[in-house]
Automatic annotation (TrEMBL), chain A:
InterPro entries: Spore_YhbH, UPF0229, vWFA_dom_sf. It comes from the Bacteria. This is UPF0229 protein SAMN02746091_00904. It comes from Caloramator proteoclasticus DSM 10124. Belongs to the UPF0229 family. SUPFAM superfamilies: vWA-like (SSF53300). Residues 82-96 have a biased composition (Basic and acidic residues). Residues 77-108 are annotated as: Disordered. Pfam families: DUF444.
Automatic annotation (TrEMBL), chain B:
InterPro entries: Spore_V_R, SpoVR-like_C, SpoVR_N. Residues 356-405 form the SpoVR-like C-terminal domain. Residues 2-181 form the SpoVR protein-like N-terminal domain. The lineage of its organism: Bacteria, Bacillati, Bacillota, Clostridia, Eubacteriales. It comes from Caloramator proteoclasticus DSM 10124. This is Stage V sporulation protein R.
Amino acid sequence: MCMAIFRDMHSDPVEHDRSIEDRRRHKKLVEKAIKDNLADILSEESIIGESKNKKVKIPIRGLKEYQFIYGKNTKGVASGDGTEKRGDRIGSEKKQGMGQQGAGNQEGEEMYELEITIDDILDYLFEDLELPDMDRKKTSEILVESSKKRDGYQKYGIRPRLAKKKTVMEKIKRKQARKRALREMNLPVDIERFPFVEDDLRYFRIKKKFRRESNAAIICIMDISGSMDNTKKFMARSFFYILSRFIRKKYKNVQVAFVAHTTTAEEVNEYQFFHRVESGGTYISSGLNKALEIINTRFNPENWNVYAFYVSDGDNWSEDDERTIKSAKELCRVCNLFAYAEVMPNSYSMTIKGKLTKEIKDKNFIAVSVSHKNELWDGLKTMLKKKQKGGY
Amino acid sequence: MDYSIKELMYWNDKIEKIAKDFGLNFYEQEFEIVSYEEMLSYEAYIGMPSRYPHWSFGKAYERTKTLYRYNLTGLPYEMVINSNPCLAYLMKENTLLLQILTMAHIYAHNDFFKNNRLFKEGTNADYTIDMFKRHANLIREYIKDPSIGYDEVERVIDAAHALKLQVKRTIYNGKDEETQDSKYKLPEEDLLLFIIKYSDIEDYKKTIVEMIREEALYFIPQIETKIMNEGWASFWHYKILKELDLPQGLYLEFIKRHNDVVAPHLGGLNPYYVGYKIFEDLERRYGIKKIFEVRDVDRDSSFIRRYLTLELCQEMNLFEYVKRDSEYIIKEVSDDEGWKEIRDTLSNNCGMGLVPYIQVTDVERDRTLILEHIYDGRELLLEYAEATLKHLVELWGHPVILKTQFGGKEYRIYCDEKKSIKRGV
């Protein structure tokens, strides 16, 4: 006499999606991991000058399930076709046949890679940034892309744009349809549990809208003197690269000027700015004065919101310090924001940042130190925080 | 489904009878017929009807689903859990022959669960479902408790998961010994037990650690017998189906499916294949009685060490590889000189042999916990070791030091209360 019991779970018409909560939580952690990693990606040299549609692969950390495991330097056993000989090389990406669930060398499969365009990364990052203290200036205006306007719904989107009410409505619709179907099939209409499914989810569609904003001009000033070695120059360029991307993304009509200086300063075009190699001494004041000159001739602060960004290692020739402080003060007077990022300063001497912060008390002066490329993003964020000091 | 439950029952009756006549001795069997989606979910939760909520199950689901979508792995024929009665799932979308093959396969797993020493002594099949349900309920209560909440519970589960395989390795019946005095019992290989006994974290956290430890102990016999268990099940489904007088169409499908299941994975190791070959060889050489004895007492590492022969190594073309720089190099092949090393390497690299052996060796005056990795030539993956130590600090509440060897030298990783890592020789 046989004993086995058979249960056909399909006599129960209600879909059963028990994993939905755990999947949602997992997805949330993935998204968080992506965001946490974006800044790292931006500090990679390779993205400078790349087109915004270039795809980069982001390794997502934080989702690994860590345990004590062995490294890849261990040996193993596998089956072959009989032609193998001692000393043969069998490729570098060997799959560990014994990597079973819950044990062993499963490091490889824990790596997630997400393909994403640089543009997408910037989208995520720039969500919370804005050029601070934008005054309403008189004459001509620039158009600012404001993406706040919702316009209808769509089935796909990012989590922050989930339209909860609409999603619930979709679920109710589905439930009603199910009930109707059950009635038509003359089946009992009692649905105990009716969870959300992927198909119910609706997201707000965002319509790109342009808003009139005041005139804005950005002056990028970079120290390219001899003390700025390759690493520092790279950091300075990364900084300006992200900044210029940000400005172009958020503000459709911004004037940008580039200034490079050693002991003398020169206005250069964007290409030169990002590619030029120089050496020589350092008069920071030369760069700041050039910026002032540009502002005076082209961007009258009466009509323009002017933002000046300066990057240097802070290693100024001491006879120039006085002049630098004077010019910096003048910049603070004419600009909405004068921001200074000091990259990898030499620790043994007082840099210009120390002197400037001591002398300049204006609220629109911000100085940050960036001693490692990971800090680039934080530096930039400090400068461009939304609603800074009650600004607009 | 192009067949009825009646048909399944018809075949099941035959299979069950043949299995019994062969001498298989199993728990009462229950089959649930589930859809593809339900099967995915059951896989993520390792077949348990209820489990506590945790993102790692969501991740498991997404991974399995992705793998199936890209056809990197076939859908599971079988999903069976070690419980009494034995619970198994049959996927509705499978063909009739696949269901027949799966049922036969499941009866052999069922028999293995009921008779292998590790399962008999290390698990209690009568209470499997209850245990997982009890754990799930308790964790849900903690989550609902306003003084605890989801994030806290998640952090403790994350930490306990990281250490879940650092538990006792000897499997025996009965309770863990109780030490009443405050003296530490050292050295201790059961890190989770050590935390439960001596850590000063809140009681509910200890309860969570205890639950996860209990579940790990339930799974360890399966980790330890993957090759044997799958070999045993494949050996018997083949024998049983041969006896079934299948109509010719089904018979051809059976041969094809069976060959797929026990096919060698070139450059990898298919446990179904290796286990099947060894059992087949044992039966040929020593008769059927012998394989029942082996099924009772062995685990993968002893199974391989005792019964993997030169002839089998050669038949399966087994070779041993090592990693040098970024490349894999063949170190030994299955000839007179090489096969023993291949056998021993495989025996040491299966089951819990793949989990580094780490002991608590001391607790310092300031409660700093000293761990020692028993180095056997295999180095730890340091990134993982560091992150795991942070999880341990979460549960211990005080600094932790791990001693190991790396690059031929003594190596220490220190993780302080704030979870910052210092490493050095």
